[in-house]
Amino acid sequence: MSKVETSQKKYQLLLLGVLLTLALALQITRYFESSAFAHSPTGLNVAENQEIILLACISDASCCSGAGGFRDTGTGTCYSNAGCTTACGGGGDTPGTGSVCTNVTTNLNLNQSVNSTGTCFVINASNIILNCSGYKINYSTAGRVGYGINNSAGYKNVTIKNCYIEEGNVTGSASRKYGIYSSNTDNITIWNNTIRTRATSSYGIYINDSLRTNITDNKIFTSGSSGYGAYFSSSNFSTVQSNNFTVTGDSAIAIYAGSSSERGTIFSNAIVVSGSGGYGIYAVTSSYNNISFNNITMPTSETNDVGIRLEQGTSHTIVDSNNVTNLGDSSSGGSSIGIQLITSTLNNSITSNKIVTTGTSTNGITLGSSANSNLLTFNEISTSGSSAEGILVETSSSNNSILSNNITTSSGTRASAIKLAASTGNNISTNLLTASGGGTSYGIYLTAGSNSSTILGNNITASASYGILLELNSKENLFMNNNLSDSLLFEIYDNTTADFNNSLAYSNTFGEIRWINNGTGSFLSNLTLNVTNGLGLGLGRNIFIGNNTLAINTSAFSTAPAQSTALARINSTANITLYGLDLSSVNIIRKVTNFTANSTEVVMAGGDCIGTGCSNISYTGNTLIFNVTSLSSYSGNFTFFNFAPTFSNASNTSPNFRRYQNFTANISISDDRELDYYIFSTNASGAWTNVTVDVSGTQYNASHQANITSSKNSLVCWYYWANDTFKNFENSTRYCFTVRNTLPRFKTSLTAQSVQVGRSLSYQIECEDDDASDTITYYDNTTLFDIGSATGLISHTPAAADIGTYTANITCGDGDDNVSETFAYTISAAAAEAAAAVAAGGGGGGSRYECKSNADCPKDKYCVKNICLKIFDLKILYLDSPIPPGEYLDFTYFVKGMADISGDVTFDFKVEQDTQIVSSGSDVIFIGSFEEKTEMTQLTLPSDLTEGTYTFTVTLRFEEYEISSSRTFEVRKETPFLPSVTILDLPVIEPNYQWNYSFIIGVNKDEPVSAVVERKISTAERTIWSKQESLVLNRSQIINDVIPGLEEGNYLLEVRAQIENHTATASQTLMIGTPSEEPSEKPKAGKAKALAGQSIFARLFLTTYDFTTIWVGGVMALFMILLLTSLIRKKKAKKLLFTPPPSLDGLEQWVREMQAMRTPTPEIIKIALEQTKWTEEDLRTVLARIDATQQLQAHYGEYLTEKMLNDLRAYITACTKKDIYKGEVITTLLHQGWDRQAIEPYVVAYYR
Predict the structure, then answer these.
(1) Which is nearest to 1193 in space by CA: 1182, 1209, 1177, 1205?
(2) What is the pLDDT of residue 1095?
């Protein structure tokens, strides 16, 4: 064959290859443009730009069949062209005329009144205005169910205004015919309409599952039973303002908010309710609403009428400045009330309301069953019926605050201003109370079982009965600074028995008096007293407390025989305190028997009562305290004589007060005479012990040391007692502190552990604590294994996918404090797996594959080159535990891309117990190729969670790939504050290079706390680096530190966080510049398998193609390439000696080929330097690469294939481009199973 023919043949073959490649590309393009990928959003064959309107298809018949409309039989949805004019949905009216009932799809202005046998207008589009222009909508004229206006399809931004809507016919049994019905909507305005309904349960306006509804300036009338003016269900951010509501049927409600209708405003409405069982405003399970400035009138004497009612979990609602007039009556057993809170209503504010009731048993405000922690303040309440309480707090309602209200009960009998009916823990303060009704109308009435309330600073006037009445079994109540006036009977009448004590006290800035039982020191078991001089009882009214004077006018109390016991009670033992006395000391208590407010008179005329009625005297810091056995006028005084010893400068030296620590108690003892001895007393051992020491002189500084053996949370106290030579003695103040928690500790330091795949690790960790009552709980921060929380046992049987070296933080906690140590764990391959990996294709000679498609692999792996490959790593680093219900669950997780894949990755979070999910969430973040991320976020836990163990799971999803990580945590209602510190995995640290690390400070309560965080890096001899900062934490936080370069050696990294009174620590050893030991033998089977699978770093192409077409084209193109290669091989061999390629990778390939032709290295260098741009440094780099590759091949032998080398080189190149630190690349490869002595030189050679 001639040279010309040969050349022509070559170019013909080349042209054929190009044509085949173009044909292959065209085939792929046509596939993606085929009908298999063409579809409309609705799944309907809709012409381009055709306008589609969704209609309410009432019947199953075809819709708009003659005007281009159609019904989708697959979904049951009716569609119509924008120009459709034929009847649709069986309605029979023509849209858009403005004169008939119709489906409304655009703005509509009525030009005449309209009628409908059922529903009149159906809203069928968003962003429209229906303006009735004052015309009437007469709907449901046939008596069947229908609505004036129906927006139940959920269209948004709709305005309905200027309409007169009337229910036309109430015959028959049909009910629930609403004037306006709107559901699943947003931003609906109902303005200036008049609405009348008549049938049972026919509401003026019904709003369901909607947002931002505005109902303003409307007039709404309902006359059927259970007819509501405006009804809200599951609707938030609603506004009902400046409307007139008139509801006249039984059980009718003007405004109803139910099913968690929250954050709404009901403002300035005029409401009239007539009929039995009616309500003005009724909120059920609906919180955070504002009900203000409404005028509610119930003009008839019906029963069970309530102005405003909050019920069943309604909380955080404001009821402010409303006028409620209730003329209803409860005499027949009903319950008419001005404002009522009932059934678990919490934290509501009832403020500045004006309430008037006139009927029997019609209370102003009633707090019913389990109405707790509510605020009632600045309300003006007037009741005039019998048994009509101003404020009634019923059984099981507690911890309410009733402050600064003005309450008057008049005309009726048994009408108390405030009544506690077996209610506890309330605060009743600064109220103005007038009980002027006849018979048994009390200012404040505590029934049996009303306990532990504070009655403070009230002005109480009772005209015909008691100012305060305590019934049987009322106990532990405090009555302080109340001004009592009763013109007929007792100011206070205590009907309790001797076993139930209450406290009566009066105080101001000058002093205080508290009545106590003589001899026992407890408060009085009977507070009954009656004042006869018309002044009543209070500060300035028969009680005077002034500068160094306290006086009680005992002559004002009744001495009648029938009340003789009452006088004895009030004129009995009391504790008196006088503040701010200008005396260096007090050694005399002066007393006169008459009532006087003049201190000088008491001092000059009074006798010393010490030892004859006054006792238990102390004077410290200008405050005098003493007890008296009868009441009169008292004052403190000083006369010089020998003093008892005095004490000063008391202190102790212990900073922590922990168990088995010593503390030192110091004090100075002084006397004007010679000291004799002192006694040091403490209960540090759990029982009081005394040490007696003889001393001399007038000044002595005493100091004693004691060891704390009491258990934690015990109260340890100490004091000194001293005596002088004149037998004067005194004891110091008792000084106390609480024994703090002792930190747990590891019995022995943790040691590194290693195990082969298929074998089991069982490693026992033990911690101990000096506090015997503490329970040690063990935690870890890894998903690789779970430590036994109660036993400290790590049991783990690793799989092949777990091969690598790991570090984990092991934490011991005792419920108050945590300590942590680092645990090193190495998993190596089992020998039995090597042959299996090679046979499966790891060495290139086997015939079996691990997988052929993703379906052959677990969900957490993909099939890549016939190997199931883990493409992401996921683990939970931190999780709050224990944690109370209703808090945010803070958690931190780590994710790492294990392949050359970039894209959005979905993370699902869930908390579950016994397969029931109690909280969940999700997030989407972008993960780049081989990228690592640490994410911190939180989930809200329901407030009603029961105590127990829950499982938290993070699931990563990328297309069909799925991997999860789980961890358990504890939910406890009584949760100790439990901070923790967790050091995240450290990078490979090179000597003298800057590096960084991160750690997590975990706090398990959502409240701001102060923290001081200290960290340091030290050797055995000294501290190399340290840092301290103060933080305010309101959740867990990741902190990052940048560390300057360190020299080779061993170091200890320590992190210590002092949070409030708790300490959390963590530490980890650092080895810089010293490689860890590696086995000298060839890699085991597990490492071979890791090389066969985890070193494949190619992008996974997951799109579906026509693989048959692509395969045929590819084979043909490959055939052409091989043919062309064979034709030019000889010519290439000739040129090889003279044309080193321009790139460094090409230069490496050229050198390899030159070496393959046995060209000496000096000659290779000479050719490259003479004929190309390459430098000696470039050639040294290439030769080092080739040498590192040969070492790697020699280390792994037949297990290392050419594909593995190519993939490994591509991975290192990708990391170089992403500027990933070289040490991190080496660490990643070590975790995948590569030996350090082989892989580290290779990475150094190829990293650039």
Answers:
(1) 1205
(2) 33
How many angstroms separate the CA atoms of 288 and 333, rounded?
Answer: 32
What pTM value is reported for the model? Answer: 0.49
Q: Over the stretch 248-266, which tens digit does the pLDDT of each residue have? A: 989 999 999 999 999 999 9
Cα distance between residue 30 and residue 36, in whole Å: 11
Question: Which tokens belong to 66?
Answer: 């003659």
Are the beta carbons of 1219 and 1225 closer than 8 angstroms?
A: no
pLDDT at position 47, please?
30
Residues 6 or more apart in contact with residue 1024 via CB below 8 angstroms: 1016, 1017, 1018, 1046, 1051
Q: What is the DSSP string of 53-70?
A: EEE---SSSPSSTTTT-E
Query: Tell me, what CATH number does 715's domain have?
Result: 2.60.40.770
pLDDT of residue 562: 53
| 157 inside domain | no
Q: Which of 676, 614, 620, 688 is nearest to 648 (CA)?
A: 620
875 and 763 share one domain: yes
Most confident of 52-61, 964-973, 1210-1219: 964-973
Q: Do the domain assignments include residue 883? A: yes
Question: Domain check: are 595 and 683 in the same one?
Answer: no
- Output phi, psi for 666, to 5 deg: -115, 145
Q: From CA 525, how far away is CA 515, in angstroms rounded?
A: 10
Number of domains in the chain: 4
Q: Residue 273: is its pLDDT beyond 80?
A: yes
What's the CA gap between 1001 and 48, in Å, rounded?
Answer: 58
The domain boundary residue, chosen from 452, 479, 500: 500
Query: Are 450 and 524 in a shared domain?
Result: no
Q: 902-914 b/e with 16+ CB inside 10 Å = b? A: eeebebebbbeee
Label residue 36 exposed, middle or buried (CB < 10 Å: 0-12, 13-18, 19+). exposed
Q: Is the peptide bond before 882 cis (omega within 30 degrees of 0)?
A: yes
- HSE on the CB side for 277, CA within 13 Å? 10
Q: How far apart are CA 588 and CA 639, in angstroms?
A: 7
848-862 burial: b if 16+ Cβ within 10 Å, else e? eebbeebeebeebbb
CA distance 248 to 254: 10
Alpha-carbon gap, residue 477 to 454, rounded angstroms: 6
Residues 750 and 856 in one domain: yes
Q: What b-and-e string marks burial along 815-831, b requiring 16 or more CB atoms within 10 Å of the CB?
A: bbbbbbbbbbbebbbbe
* Structural domain includes residue 47: no
Residue 282 belongs to some domain of the structure = no
List helix spans (H) across 976-1106: 1085-1093
Render the burial of 107-120: b for 16+ CB within 10 Å, e for the rest: ebebeeebebebbb
Cα–Cα distance measured from residue 285 to residue 287, given in angstroms and rounded to the nearest whole number: 7
The last residue of a domain, from among 711, 738, 765: 738
* CA–centroid distance for 697 within its chain: 63
Amino acid 364 reads: G
% of the chain residues with pLDDT over 90: 34
Residues 890 and 753 in one domain: yes
Identify the three-state secondary structure at position 1198: helix
Hey, is 1146 helix, strand or coil?
Answer: helix
Residue ranges with strand state E in 1087-1216: none
Q: Do 994 and 1027 share a structural domain? A: yes
Encode pLDDT of 1081-1118 as tens digits: 333 333 333 333 333 333 333 333 333 333 444 444 45
Same domain (yes/no): 909, 1014: yes
Report the distance separating Cα 548 and Cα 241, nearest Å: 59
Range of the domain at 653: 646-738
- pLDDT one-digit tens code per residue, 60-117: 333 433 333 444 333 344 444 333 333 333 333 333 446 899 999 999 999 999 999 9
